[in-house]
Amino acid sequence: MRLGQIFGSNVRRLRKERGLSQEALADEVGLAVTYVGQIERGQRNPTLDVVERFAEVFGVDPLEMLKLPG
Amino acid sequence: MRLGQIFGSNVRRLRKERGLSQEALADEVGLAVTYVGQIERGQRNPTLDVVERFAEVFGVDPLEMLKLPG
Questions:
Q1: Which CATH number is B7's domain given?
Q2: CB interface of A with B, residues 9-48, below 8 Å
Q3: pTM for this entry
Q4: Domain-embedded: residue A59
């Protein structure tokens, strides 16, 4: 599984765990909602800075965003 | 320490461990040598695909490229 796909599935999982809509999450990370949706579906190739922005909003270590859960 | 800086220091360390010049590494990953130098100095914000390309050339797990060694 590619890092971008693992990252996207973690973004979606953490967003839902926190009860956030894609719109609310996009506001928090300061990215377009369409981009957040594409990230969640593994359709984008985000930079390390973007990974860190999501990790900060979710309050997790950036590396956790790139690991398969469990 | 930012992920980009950790990544850069790992690229430099692994490149030297394998006895590669920046030019030889750039050839292997298919990126410009100036870009590889900037990555090593933590001056770029690489994408997850780029992290995976270096990991493949070095034969390590992509996540290892983003962890402080030791």
A1: 1.10.260.40
A2: 45-48
A3: 0.95
A4: yes
